[in-house]
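Protocol step 4 of 6: record predicted structures for both targets in the notebook before any analysis. Target 1:
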Amino acid sequence: QVQLVESGGGLAQPGGSLRLSCATSGFTFSRYSMNWVRQAPGKGLEWVSAIWRDGSDQSYADSVKGRFTISSDHAKSTVYLQMNNLQPEDTAVYYCAKDSQTTGWKGYYGMDYWGKGTLVIVSS
């Protein structure tokens, strides 16, 4: 079965860095785009970043552009999110999610599998 398992969350100071990982299994990793989506306390879901199925293209929300970098390792079927210059407004649960269609991009056709999330807290 499809599994997505996030890790790497924790407490960071403003201006600090964290690297999130999402280990996947149960599907052909190279056939689907992958996304990071976050939910801040008391708020709705916010799409953060996406990487095309072969890793050749990346996209970011304006709120994280220039600070976050998405990448993937096809040998490990893992997607990463490097987060630099973290700010308190980045505090959220971060989810990894798979596009539902092989031609999907940034969840255009929906995201059909999600991990359980990893909590990031940015505070001094």
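Target 2:
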Amino acid sequence: QVQLVESGGGLAQTGGSLRLSCVASGVTFSRYSMAWFRQAPGKEGEFVATISLIGANTSYADSVKGRFTISRDNAKNTLYLQMNTLKPEDTAVYYCTGVPFGSSQRFWGQGTQVTVSD
């Protein structure tokens, strides 16, 4: 059974930093491309960042490029999102998500709330 569990969310001030983690279980983590999505109140979900199977390739939404860094540790079955220079518009529930190689099925975590105050 695939399980993705996010942690690390919370309250931060504008300009501050947070580091999100997502621990995967029930999977061969290195066979999953991983990503972070987010959903702000009253808005549709949006892509934040993605990382390839062994972390060689990453991609970011323009809104977070240069501020956020996605990474993974396959030995620890863990995905990370380092968020720096946070802005109030980064306030959202952040979701960890993964797709196994060769499949189109996407798995989701339960989300972690990030709130950035002025």
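Step 5 preliminary note on target 2. The mean pLDDT is 97. The longest strand covers residues 92-100.
Proceed to step 6 after PI sign-off.
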